[in-house]
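Q: Given only this backbone (308 positions), what sequence would you predict?
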């Protein structure tokens, strides 16, 4: 196994939705032993601590979008940190809600453009997050990152996306909560998408293998964005957007083991962990275990956990 320099970037983003708690996520990942787990696999770790948003203007109390200016500040900060971190290793963004991907993915895309390599994105999530600020009914920006980094319009005030990720380079797996505006937009897009019915009927290996083969053939960089709600809430309760019928623990590990076997993953988001909703650290530990699987832990190496 090739050792990596894993750069841990705490992003306590809590502005992408109204339910508070994700700002505690980065420290929960640390407490659950992320760095020791990676180091036990032969990787080095470099923890940059928790970053902050760039300065931002006061929010418009009458605005339809929740915490828009704060999220813009986070997007600017994360994009800069992501681009720099890619030069030194494999950045792991510890969220924080999924609006952090507005910055993490655009920063990685800027690095990919400088390296003259295409960027691919694997989106492991119950939701497509393909909204724009004009199509979202909730006004929550954690539902917009894919729309933003693929270059959709109407992100007024946000940094210009200099290197949008081509829609055909995005693969979504685990979908099971897609509203009408997103569905209509996706039907007219080139994004590869696999809902849980597809997974139930055909399995998870085929779609993921086909996507990874495309990444390898293009000599691409691969950013993986893992949302807690990709998993079923019975095994990962610490998320404010629970949707029944998600991936099992075994399916989660299978995806991550396949990512490691491919050797293609170059950056990773771990997002939407809300420790306030967790059960004795159950979800945080599972997310750490999945990250370890993506970086080389095999089935026989997994620790036994007791929550009694």
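A: Predicted residues:
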């Amino acid at each position: 196994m090739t050792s990596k320099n894993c750069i841990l970037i705490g992003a306590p983003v809590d502005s992408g939705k109204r339910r508070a708690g994700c700002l505690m996520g980065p420290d929960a990942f640390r407490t659950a032993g992320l760095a020791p787990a990676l180091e036990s696999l032969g990787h080095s770790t470099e923890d940059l601590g928790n970053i902050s948003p760039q300065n931002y203007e006061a929010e418009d109390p009458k605005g339809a979008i929740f915490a828009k200016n704060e999220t813009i500040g986070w997007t600017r900060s994360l994009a800069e940190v992501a681009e720099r971190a890619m030069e030194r290793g494999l950045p792991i963004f510890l969220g924080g809600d999924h609006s952090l991907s507005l910055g993490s993915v655009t920063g990685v895309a800027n690095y990919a453009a400088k390296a003259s390599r295409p960027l691919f994105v694997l989106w492991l999530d119950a939701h497509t997050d393909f909204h724009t600020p004009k199509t979202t009914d909730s006004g929550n920006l954690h539902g917009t990152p894919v729309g933003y980094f693929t270059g959709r319009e109407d992100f007024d005030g946000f940094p210009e996306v200099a290197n949008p990720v081509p829609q055909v380079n995005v693969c979504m797996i685990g979908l099971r909560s897609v509203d009408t505006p997103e569905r209509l937009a996706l039907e007219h897009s080139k994004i590869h998408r696999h809902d849980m019915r597809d997974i139930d009927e055909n399995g998870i290996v085929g779609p993921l293998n086909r996507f990874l083969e495309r990444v390898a053939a293009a000599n691409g960089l691969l950013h993986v964005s893992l949302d807690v709600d990709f998993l079923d809430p019975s095994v990962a309760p610490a998320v404010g957007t629970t949707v029944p019928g998600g991936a099992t623990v075994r399916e989660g590990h299978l995806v991550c083991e396949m990512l490691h076997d491919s050797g293609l993953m170059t950056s990773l988001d771990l997002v939407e962990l809300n420790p306030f909703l967790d059960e004795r650290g159950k979800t945080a530990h599972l997310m750490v275990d999945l990250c370890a699987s993506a970086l080389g832990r095999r089935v026989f190496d997994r620790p036994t956990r007791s929550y009694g």
